[in-house]
Amino acid sequence: MANEIISSDASAHNNKIGIAFKERGELQKAKSCIEKAIELSPNFAAAHNNLGLVFEELGEVQKAKSCIEKAIEINPNYSIAYWNLHSFSSNIDEALTILRKLYKIDNKFITAKIMISALQGFKGNFNEFDALLASSDSNHPYTRSLKWIFSLPKLPKIFFDRWDFFNFATELSDKSRPFYEFGVWNGTSFKHLIKTFKKGFGFDTFTGIPEEWHNNKVGTYSAFGKIPKLKGGKFIVGKFEDTLPKFFSKKRPLASLINFDADLYSSTLCALN
Fold it and tell me: Which distant-in-sequence residues (6+ apart) come within 8 Å of 57 by Cβ?
């Protein structure tokens, strides 16, 4: 019994450290810690779920999906794991199946409710979304965003996984030109894109966001000043309002693709301008 308690505590400790490393963007360290947690406690559902999130950050989608499915196998009522799993769906019907299971388990999971109504809308049935607009959840950020999407003359193609989205976008791009990325953090997306375009420009402070964003404090998403070293990548360090005017004071090559991933409205607006 004592050994089981010690093992359980050590597993939880390793999982917690792994999450901390993930939030810092140190993905390999996060992976090692969470794998150790699972080694100590093979049926630790949260650790399997968190390992899946790390694999997703690393771009290893199938491993990510398998880990999260394992978490659900261990704990069939693990609502957040269902939410994470739906982001690996290959189509709307698959996502709806997963989200409905989630909402049956937890009918207070509001984002699942909103997403179900949205996906039904994409299939041409707006009954649930119209009911949402008439409810107290009409001002939820997801609801407001979807209201705007449904106002468009043509609905966009849905991608549940960002890597699929990136691959779709690159297929439409001129691969002879470099890409631009505003918000680099640990360079995961940059590494994915550089494989196709061979040259890219990345803009970031590498010390985290310069102002609070929702529940994220100043300095969140910091790379602690560590700038990626990637062949073909050129990184411009500093706040956008300081670096962009100077950088674009000279003629620069047209972009093949631009990835706006700065999180902050102010930073994104600056980059767009």
Answer: 22, 27, 188
